[in-house]
Each structure stands twice: as structure tokens, then as C-alpha cells.
Amino acid sequence: MKRIAGMPESMSAVVTHYCPGCSHGVLHRIIAELIDELDLRGRTVGVASVGCSVLAYNYFETDFVQAPHGRAPAVATGVKRARPNLFVFTYQGDGDMAAIGTAEIIHAAARGERITAIMYNNSIYGMTGGQMSPTTLMGAVTATTPYGRSEENGRPYRMAELLAQMPGTAYVARTHVADVANIVKTKQAVRKAFEAQIRGLGFSMVEVLGNCPTNWGMTPAESNRYVLTEMLSYFPVGEFKDVTKEALAGVHA
Amino acid sequence: MRAIKLELDQDRCKGCELCTEACPREVLAMGSQIHALGYRAAVAIAPERCTGCRACALVCPEVVFTIYKTA
After folding, report:
1. What is the pTM of this model?
2. For A170-209, what is each residue's pLDDT tens digit?
3. How many domains does chain A fold into?
4. Is residue B55 situated within a structural domain?
């Protein structure tokens, strides 16, 4: 019989520390499956962020570096420049990429570093106890906005659109992992981002909308519905930049 | 007739119930036993109804499901 679903070889067979229903596990599996399918396992270096995904190195059967808070794109730049034949990706949350690491991600994208950044956007600081992040929706109640995010906190900003306008980016997309169809689409987007790096087209990034049942105070099913309704109304899914087709056709990107 | 084999690694399950909601054929339900991690694991109550659509395996954050299918 043919195995059509199961544990990817690039994923460690340990129980994760993530809360029940957390979509981090889904995104980990997607990345591990692609590392298997693209046969990258022997030359992959992942760069973990600070946040819930700080322990990502425990869950991948590849080499991993754990970067200081927000500095994953800078560490990944160093790894990739020193060893250009390696496949290098970062795995960051919204607090890591959109708050503390804004300088690093924007300049890595502008320079067109040949790395892939995966952003897990659940609009909250999960690991530290549910504080407001730059992508927290207006009105959302968090530990630091007990009456809901208001104008004095500013408005959430859209990282994928911001990076899409950077000259060095080859592929930038936003997807979500709150239902079956979009989990499949997320895998397609991450595959394109990985292939953009493999072909040396430039910086690639996928922003993946996910849940945080614990800090949102919802059941896993309710939190996925929150992604499908509230988050999708502010963060549209789609491909914001894609030069992979032009590059295939031989057109100057 | 295609044969499907659905395996659950219940020791990994954290009882989030996303698979029972995703399964279109009501193959899965939550069990009553509490395992070592302190969660109730999903169980296959009607594996003969499984079509191998992989919906459970796609939504599962813990990679509980392994599915085999004859070609």
C-alpha cells in the first residue's frame, strides 16, 4: 500500500510543546514535507525565531540556528552568504518579524538575499502570554489591550504587502491554514517560495495566517473561524509578488 | 475497490477536535480515555467509511494520522 499521509522524514517524531489545536504544527509539517519532496534535507539550515517557534529546532530533522529576537533574517543572510549552496529559511512569528525584527526583515528583502522567510501571523505574542503585536486587529482584547486595541495603539500593518514592494523580493504571498483547502494552497505557496530561492531569484516570503486558541480564549475550531472571518477581512490572501513565471520564460524580472 | 488503512498515533493527540470537524464522512470521534499527556485522543469509530481524502491529516497539528491507500 502507498502511504498518502503521515510523518515527513524531515520532521522529528516528538510531541511538540504547542497548545492543542495550534496551527504551528500544520505549518511545520508543510515545511518538512516540502524539504522531503524537494530533496533538501542534507543541505537545509533553518533559522528559528524567538516566540512560540523558538523551539522549532527540536521539530525538524535538519540543521538549525536559533537567532536573537527578530534577527533571524540577519543570521540567515550570514549562513547563506558563507555557504551559498545551502538552503536557508527562517521561521518567525508576527511579533518576531513585524515588531522586534522589522529592520532585519526589510533590509534582507531590499538586498534580495537568497533566503526564504516564513511568517506565522496569529496577531498576538503567544509565548509571553498574549500581548498585543503589531498585527493585532483593531478592537481585539489582549493582555496589554484589556479594553481592545484602540487608535492610540495604532493600526495593524500588512507585512506581505510591505515586502512585496521591496526591489529584491522574488516571491511574496499571504495564505492561511484555517481550513483544508487553504492548507493545500499554503503548501503550494511555500513550495514556490522555496523554489524561488533554489533558482536564486531573490528573497522569498510567505505570511501564513494562523490561530492562537489559548491566548485568544477560544476553542481550536472557534479560533480557526476567527481567522476565516476577522483576520481574512483585514489580511487578504494572495500572491503580491511573483517573478518566478517571468524568470522561467527568460524575461528580465 | 480501493482499500484504505487509517492509523492513529493516539499518544501524540492533544484532543483539539479539529479532525472530527474536518472529516466529511464522520469516521472520527473523540474517545473517552485520557492518555499520558492528559488529553482525550481522537478515535476512528467507523474506519470502513474512510475514503482517504486526507482532510484529518491536513488539519491535524500533531501528525497523528498515517494513511495508506492501494494504488
Report:
1. 0.95
2. 999 999 999 999 999 999 999 999 999 999 999 999 999 9
3. 1
4. yes
